[in-house]
Amino acid sequence: MSTRFRATRSTVTERAASRRGGFPLFVAGGQYALAMRWSQLFVPTLRDAPADAEAASHRLLIRGGFIRQLHSGHYTMLPLGWKVHEKVADIVREEMNAIGGQEFLFPAMHPKSLWEASGRWTTMGDEMFRLQDRSGTDVGLAMTHEEAFAQMALEVNSWRALPQIWYQLQWKFRDEPRPKAGLLRVREFVMKDAYSLDIDDAGLDESFDKHHGAYLRIFGRLGLDAMPVEASSGAMGGSGSIEFMVESPSGEDDVVRCPNCDYRANVERAASAVAPIDDDTPPDAPEKFATPGIRTIAALEEAGAPADRQIKTMVMVIDGAVTLALVRGDHQLNMQKLQDATGGVDIRPATPDETVKHLGAAPGSLGAVGVDAEIRIYADHALDGRTNMTTGANEDDFHWRGVDIARDISVTEWVDLREVSAGEPCISCGSTLEIVRCIEAGHIFKLGTRYAEAMGAHVLDAEGQKRTIVMGSYGIGIGRNMAAVAETHYDDKGLTWPVSVAPYEACITAMKVDDEATMIAATALYDELRGAGIDVILDDRDARAGVKFADSELIGIPHRITIGPRGLKDGMVEHTVRSTMETSDVALDAVAALVTDAITAAR
RNA sequence: CGGGCAGUGGCGCAGGUUGGUAGCGCGCCUCGUUCGGGACGAGGAGGUCGUGGGUUCAAAUCCCGCCUGCCCGACCA
Questions:
Q1: Domain total for chain A?
Q2: Composition of chain A by helix, strand, coil, percent to 5
Q3: Which nucleotide is nearest to A180 (CA to C1')?
Q4: What is the pLDDT of residues A44-84, one digit of tens each?
Q5: What ipTM score was computed for the predicted complex, to two decimals?
Q6: Which structural domain, as residue segments, surrounds residue A550?
Q7: What is the mean pLDDT of chain A?
Q8: CA of A47 vs C1' of B26, distance in Å?
Q9: Which residue is nearest to nucleotide B5 (CA to C1')?
């Protein structure tokens, strides 16, 4: 063994050991030795994926023997899957440690009182799993840990201790209404959740930026092309909010992206430039006119009112109160924007009965002109200043025209409600916006003082003044990222993991297991690569070549070394790079160095 | 929760409308021949047809209830 290998080995050993808190993962050991031979491993690969697996990652992770479903939204990690999962987790750990993060482990089961302190015992609703212990005490399974970390922050008493970055990797439980797509959306998953503690907003900004950088490094190492986008803060509350999005058809979010400048935003947040509309000369007063049978924007358009000169009136019930949301006739209401604008918790469309009761007409003839002053009216900015508009008259078969919004409608608040559509002009550069489907791989946001205030987490500043700790919250779903990598790294043969998270970095495929020369060479190479710190597996199964090739390609091992009598008689083996499937003949005594260099460079 | 669909050996499916006690491919076990790209032959193991009830001489099949899972929408790492 060359000295170069020894050097590589110690580097990797140390790195692995530091990742695992002194617990070496990828070095030779009694436990690891068992995992050397494929013939002894439990890797149940499938020729056919279950029919109900649709997403590419779902299909391939099941076929490759990485995961199995226990029930809806709950997956078992098989040895191969857990290995990948932990490699992802270790990358996250390393980058969190690199920005000064300190790892904790909080319980997953929390007392009701902790969540009552922040008010989320109620507001989390059905999303939270709840149960009672034997004495009848209510407990919940944590969906996230703001409360718990904020409570821990009670023990930080001086400004001198700040800033702090605290994190953990812990199971989260969420009673998702609809688990789907394998690991992409589940009810039980490991999340790396981090929380920053700062004395003020400037400190928070700094902690936030540190995480932003760490996240980009994490996704880079995972081989994910993740773009930071402006996002809604959702149920967590807070101001600044950035999601890291990976483009994929299996995603669940729509991101507005400008091909020309760097504008990127979740549709829940995105804006676009809206061209002005010529309203012509408006009349002095609105005029009611009969519109028999007309119930839709399109029908009204045929009757002479262009959609962009109509007001669309959506009746919503926000925390029990009937509320109107107004957008231009050709625009779509975005529910998240309405929620963000109103601060509502429970938002739903009104039922037809509620609509008739409060507005006097059924959907299709609704408007905001002259409605009960009790009803709050939120109007989209695109309607601001508009005149000569057409809208429902709250009387079946009648509409108003010549409506001047400022004059005729008592708008409670002007807000951003409309959803951006593809093809609209970018708000910052005017280029044509596109909308791409994405997986939300990570989310960072500025919580402010909400949780620290609720838990009473204060410090004394340099002047001896009591200050509420300012917090940030930063999440990455480990399993989801594993799925996102799979979702973006595969071909018709199977997965093409990047070296950083591959279940094994290299596979030695012995072509003829009853050929002594083959097995001696394969075993020696295996020892040499292990010695060089390579995470390598020896496929010693007594199976046909096609089966072994297909399996190594399916599970996506980046490098394969094929050893058989045919090449061996000339001292040659084959090296195949999984991502490109390029195969080359290499001298047996040169292949270890070649593969080691390639893997080391790719880590 | 609203809309659509499906539960039959480990996986993929047929059978169902025309009730008669379950079949195919892959996988698994044994033997032989093969074997550098998912081999072939012979033999074999494996299923309360999701579940409860009903109709019937007889139910995988018809009827009702329930459970579970998947896909599309409202929520999130």
A1: 3
A2: 35, 30, 35
A3: B70
A4: 998 877 777 788 899 899 999 999 888 888 899 999 999 99
A5: 0.88
A6: 3-36+504-602
A7: 85
A8: 7
A9: A52
